[in-house]
Amino acid sequence: MNYQKALLFVLLIAFSCAKQEKVMVSDSENQHPKLILTAKGVKDIRAQLGTIPIFDNSLLKVKEEVDAEIALGIETPIPKDYSGGYTHSRHKQNWFVLQKAGVLYQILDDEKYAKYVKDMLMQYEEMYKTLPLHPKTRSYARGKLFWQCLNDANWLVYVSQAYDCIYNYLSEGERNKLETNLFKPFADHISVDSPQFYQRVHNHSTWGNAAVGMIGLVMDDEELIQRALYGIKGKEMDKTAKDDDGGFINKSGKAGFLANIEEPFSPDGYYNEGPYYQRYAMYPFLVFAEGLQNVKPELKIFEYKEGVLLKSINALLNLSDADGDFFPLNDGQKGMSYYNSALVTAVDVSYHYGNQDPGLLSIASKQNSVLLDDSGLAVALGIREGKTKSFEKKSINLSDGPEGKQGGVGILRNEDIELVFKYASQGSSHGHYDKLSYSLYENGEEVIQDYGLARFVNIEQKGGGNYLKENKTWAKQTIAHNTVTQNETSHYKGKYEIGSQNHPDLHYFSSDNKEVQIVSSKVRNTYSGTDLHRTMAIINDVDLEKPFVLDIMRVTSDKKNQYDFPFYYFGQVLDANFEYKTTSTLKPLGKKNGYEHLFLEASAKADDKNSKFSWFNNNKFYTITSVTDKKDELLFTRIGANDPEFNLRRDPALIVRRNNVKNTTFVSTIESHGSYSPVTESALNAKSSIAEVKVILDNKDYTAIMIANVKGNTKLFITANSDALKETKHNLKLNGKNYSWMGSYYYKQTNK
Amino acid sequence: MNYQKALLFVLLIAFSCAKQEKVMVSDSENQHPKLILTAKGVKDIRAQLGTIPIFDNSLLKVKEEVDAEIALGIETPIPKDYSGGYTHSRHKQNWFVLQKAGVLYQILDDEKYAKYVKDMLMQYEEMYKTLPLHPKTRSYARGKLFWQCLNDANWLVYVSQAYDCIYNYLSEGERNKLETNLFKPFADHISVDSPQFYQRVHNHSTWGNAAVGMIGLVMDDEELIQRALYGIKGKEMDKTAKDDDGGFINKSGKAGFLANIEEPFSPDGYYNEGPYYQRYAMYPFLVFAEGLQNVKPELKIFEYKEGVLLKSINALLNLSDADGDFFPLNDGQKGMSYYNSALVTAVDVSYHYGNQDPGLLSIASKQNSVLLDDSGLAVALGIREGKTKSFEKKSINLSDGPEGKQGGVGILRNEDIELVFKYASQGSSHGHYDKLSYSLYENGEEVIQDYGLARFVNIEQKGGGNYLKENKTWAKQTIAHNTVTQNETSHYKGKYEIGSQNHPDLHYFSSDNKEVQIVSSKVRNTYSGTDLHRTMAIINDVDLEKPFVLDIMRVTSDKKNQYDFPFYYFGQVLDANFEYKTTSTLKPLGKKNGYEHLFLEASAKADDKNSKFSWFNNNKFYTITSVTDKKDELLFTRIGANDPEFNLRRDPALIVRRNNVKNTTFVSTIESHGSYSPVTESALNAKSSIAEVKVILDNKDYTAIMIANVKGNTKLFITANSDALKETKHNLKLNGKNYSWMGSYYYKQTNK
């Protein structure tokens, strides 16, 4: 702390000596900086410096980092490596440092930063003008500094900000040199020379568009700006071509930044690839939007599509668990969270350009960092003025699809229990074949997991840090998810062409009743002739310690099938009410579609009423109670078969297998209960509180479930399977008793 | 906090109204309380109350807890259940509440607490006088309130304190009733009626001795006190009988509290069963010692055996990792830590009766709790007066055996790296067959694990919370540990009779050089005709990011054998320099001695020089570099085969298998390096810094190892295998160069 304070002191001294008269504010469009930092913003920041702790600290950290880099000297090696290798890491580091050094030059008015930026840019200029394609050939769109255009675009998004910051520091001749030999050809390489990368609706292209647009804004090059907003003029793409990940390059023919806003975001702000990729894509969306707002305010970019960019930030923050970690839907790497720097941008931009939601200030405080620009200043001032409130995450339904009509994601929250129900569309090339699947969290810990991706991002030893083949053979397959797999085949035959043309539909979502948070969705054609309808609720019942999950998965088919219904729990088996037999030799459960990656550890015949299974994890107890009959099989599996490079985690599952039936309904409850302390060695509430779960009625109109608990109380839950409108009145006779209610579902304690 | 403050206020008001004249201080031995709380202590506590935050808060918590119990009413159910069941838990809860209520009566002088204790004791008296043996039959020594005498003894250790606190509140008639019908027969049941429990040297007996002694001190019953100190007079035990755990009941013939101090503690204070059981045994040792010190100060119990009781507390605190979790040597359950209430006792007693080590105050502060007695008051005053210093854990060697001549445990510490090297004796019935094994920690996280026990203490669903059969078949076996297994057989044939008659010996321990912490030990007869000699060091070398482990295991035998040498790492395989082949079907590695519990996942032929293996865990990178030749096999295993009730964790290991050799030396380095952030997705220093490890010389006098790092620097390490005295001078010619040094080992960078 003392060191930090001393530095701050030096910093402020340095600043007070700076020639303030240098800063001139004008409305002229040619005033620089203008892109992200603005001349007015710089003036305001300088006026507040030293009185805005979160900003001052962010500035100090950046200064330390950049000063250390300046001390090391400039390195611009000839490109050679994949991600994780030296040249890749160095050029990546350079783009960050350039952007930061530019900002420091503006805020601290210290020429050493401008000179550093200029010197490095000149080195790049010298190298780039004769630079061939990157020697590594794996990408569908090779860059020059990096093995893929995507990273070249990343570079330009940051470096255009640095250029903006030192624009006025450079002579016209220097600017001409850089623009002619570096920036213009760089922008061309990632756009007109790489249309398969640039001319599409995809997070890669968003980076490309932003890169071209931002350098265009700085250079005041209208042609580049138009290319950024609307794509390469007149360029028609092959609609059947695919990229490395198996996704179509450009099926719709759409391109450009506005199309990239239009297509992937639903009106609720859900990004169709899921939060992990939204986080990645977010930065170019927001930083280019900031630039457009500053330079071309008449475009009203933040109001585009009814303000979807700002809505998407709220959606993204809601797609995180109690610790701020994003739910790993589709190809999401676990551990990515709102602590990522892209989210610092998102939170600050949302606060500044949105409606100054004080909840955002609590996230900014946790991030303990702000942008060194006008929006970061606004956040720092908000925090200084004590406006912070906590960011409350409630149950939320986020529609998917450009018009919000391609399913969605429903997040149910009740006390510490959080359920993420995925009924979204395919999710572009990063989508998984997991219709109506879910994952379950308790206070930020995974209870029933979504596997996420099979990749170790940027860890070179694991396939260069890129997608591993098990991502396709395991992580994307249906059996890797908590949903129904029919006849050991993935949804939509595991084919992108089919998956991307289908999606589930919302049946209903209800969070009005605090004690019953619920979502219900239907999907057709995951298998030809088979429909799925799943209703999931978190119910906070007075007789149970914590809210429990009720899960009703209805399967209707035109023929008899085998259905597998897994629970990807974590931890150690405690207890079961069925006799399972472990096998002394472990064999793969199947041959393909992900089954080849599951070892069968034990199997059992199910109980004729309820199969109960308890496990223990993170010093808490969990119990599944599933309605079964004695023809059902129960399989204990573990991931890791046919995994020649140990790319997969050895995680367990319990699978309910139901064979040779046409229509069936999987009904289960999942309880979290009690706790264990290894210090006091006391186990509290270690046993399930649910005595029985029973299906009372199950037809096309209603499913009625009786839940009896160990206190002897019985609860009835009824969901409307056909007409679930809020205002519909229902009358139903069950076991001689009449039940009437209005709305999608009924839940009431029947005796006490 | 407000609620707490309000309570404190009420508490102090209540106290100021109390009739202080009731407290009379006298030297009379019949003054009560006298056992743990003393009349003088009560007076001092009352004088300081409200000014000693940690004490006040501890008092508040106890008051809240006891008041809640009083509100619930008294329950003394007829005994019925095993651990974890209702009657067990209730009687266990009662003993705690009784002790606490007694203390509250003394400190707060509120009769409601005395009445509560009296009423409950009278209910116990009513029940106990006709109570048969506990109905559950599994114990070798059944109790009456509980299924095992051990828990009955626990009860009496606590309840004798409660009785002491309300002794003067009771009429003589009431005291006679309780003593005649409850306390005396209770003490007799757990001693003269259960000699197999009482008359031995074992942690169970310590509880028994303390229980009998403490009630004897309160009742002023000299016969009970003598029985406690010296065992049942004239009682000879069958020297060949065994208990439930397979340990001898009483082979030595020794018994009583003093023998229980004498036998299990080494002069350094190491407890022969290991820290988990020491923690469990600690409470009766210390609380009875406190009672003896208070009532019979002439016995000088804290000076007994050169102050071993206080030394043992220091040893125990040193047997914990950076988080305070005890190393799970022998049958230790992971997660037990110095936050356990027994350690609150230990820390407070050590501070008060020892030399007021200010480092203990920092642990007391972390515990955030003190005893409500004279020693807790001393700690609270020390903290209040700002005496706290941090408790520094350094490398430490703890001898084992009553005279410190039966091996020991060496703990090496260097920055965040901590290595626990076990060369101790068998460790009584809770010992594992793991001579010269080790476990490795980094900042409180396990890097190379010791499995610990196969038991879920107090979790009823797992075998009633008792030892599982896999504890014998797996956890105790040699192959479950990081040491050498010969011919798939455990050390000492896995036989307690042999194990308990043998032990390793220290070769040397050296922590003088800050950069080289080192321990070396030899053992004969783990296998007939085979000797083991292991030297382990943590070396902090300027060329490496973090201190690394150097491990030299010399095996000399009179015949050719197969040697297995495992590394129980945690996490995911990253990389190896050898070609391994996974198997699509997993089979157990062997048929017995623990091998039946290991699945073979993959195997490889070793590299002809060094086999390198890297893994990834908790966002850190680790690499083993092991000297191998191409005849060596490398086996990837996973625990969990032949585990019909899923009692074992599915943890991985890499095993170096060397077959058909007589003498051999396993030489390896283990590095922790770098880090990964899932938020920034950057991998730092993800690769090993060690280029080569080579054995230059290996004979009965010296082993010399060359370690070359990726910077091109080469280091030489030489350990003296025969004469390792500090003052011995060595001269050695290696590759034409002369090396001379004094002491056990040589380590120096040879070129730079």
From TrEMBL, chains A, B:
<keyword id="KW-0732">Signal</keyword>
<dbReference type="Pfam" id="PF07940">
    <property type="entry name" value="Hepar_II_III_C"/>
</dbReference>
<feature type="domain" description="Heparinase II/III-like C-terminal">
    <location>
        <begin position="400"/>
        <end position="654"/>
    </location>
</feature>
<dbReference type="InterPro" id="IPR012480">
    <property type="entry name" value="Hepar_II_III_C"/>
</dbReference>
<dbReference type="InterPro" id="IPR008397">
    <property type="entry name" value="Alginate_lyase_dom"/>
</dbReference>
<dbReference type="Pfam" id="PF05426">
    <property type="entry name" value="Alginate_lyase"/>
</dbReference>
<protein>
    <submittedName>
        <fullName>Heparinase</fullName>
    </submittedName>
</protein>
<keyword id="KW-0456">Lyase</keyword>
<dbReference type="GO" id="GO:0016829">
    <property type="term" value="F:lyase activity"/>
</dbReference>
<dbReference type="GO" id="GO:0042597">
    <property type="term" value="C:periplasmic space"/>
</dbReference>
<dbReference type="InterPro" id="IPR008929">
    <property type="entry name" value="Chondroitin_lyas"/>
</dbReference>
<feature type="domain" description="Alginate lyase">
    <location>
        <begin position="101"/>
        <end position="323"/>
    </location>
</feature>
<keyword id="KW-0574">Periplasm</keyword>
